[in-house]
Amino acid sequence: MIEVVKSKIHNVTVTGANLNYIGSVTIDEDLMDAANIIENEKVQVLNKNTGDRLDTYVIKGKRGSGEICLNGPAARRTSLGDVILIVSYATMDFEEAKTFRPNIIFPDTATNKLI
Question: Least enclosed by CB within 10 Å: which of 15, 41, 108, 114?
Answer without folding.
Answer: 108
